[in-house]
Design a protein that fits this description.
Length: 192
């Protein structure tokens, strides 16, 4: 663990020492900042490969470089035949070097998909944060999540009881239809 922390500290130092350059974001505190965004991750990838060089097998660096190249090319506004060829090259390079992750026991767990956790993060954190007034936001977020959980449980209970079939309008129209039928029936039987 001590050796791993030394390596992580060295990686942080390398990230923090990245020089100023147009289009290159600086991370003076390294990779250890409190809240990450997608933009942070993309910007960090530009300085991450040189920072891990020598700490991981070179095949890992090559596989990550190929993956990042592929992603950056795929995100271009215009993709032409040269772009497609470069994507094919990057994908071929990635497949050539990706086996190192299996050999070093860095394979992805079966069935893991980050989109599942991201969607939960949006519902449980981002949306309640936006609803808060930012003062003591955590307690407001927790209260919002409690309320949402109770509403979801009520909805399941109401659906089970058949209380959520149709809309208010369909209910009213159904009742009006029954009233019209009853009025017509009464009119035809000359009760009044």
């Amino acid at each position: 663990e001590t050796e791993a922390n030394k390596i992580l500290d060295d990686i942080d130092q390398r990230i923090a020492l990245a020089p100023s350059f147009a289009g290159l974001r600086r991370f003076p505190e390294g990779r250890r900042f409190k809240q990450w965004t997608g933009d942070d991750s993309k910007a960090l990838m530009k300085v991450y490969l040189p920072a891990i060089e020598g700490h991981v097998p070179s095949e890992m660096v090559q596989a990550l470089r190929a993956l990042i190249d592929f992603i950056y090319i795929a995100r271009r506004d215009i993709i032409d035949s040269n772009s497609l060829e470069a994507m094919d090259d990057a994908l071929e390079c990635f497949h050539k070097y990706r086996k190192i992750f299996q050999e070093c026991a860095f394979g992805a767990p079966n069935g893991l998909c980050s989109s599942m956790t991201e969607s939960k993060h949006i519902k449980a954190v981002k949306e309640p944060w936006r609803r808060s007034n930012r003062f003591d936001a955590l307690s407001q977020m927790l209260l919002t999540n409690q309320h949402l959980d109770k509403l979801a449980a009520s909805r399941i209970d109401f659906a089970h009881r058949g209380m959520l079939q149709g809309t208010c309008l369909s209910y009213i129209l159904e009742k009006l239809g029954m009233l019209l039928w009853l009025a017509t029936l009464l009119e035809n039987t000359n009760v009044f």
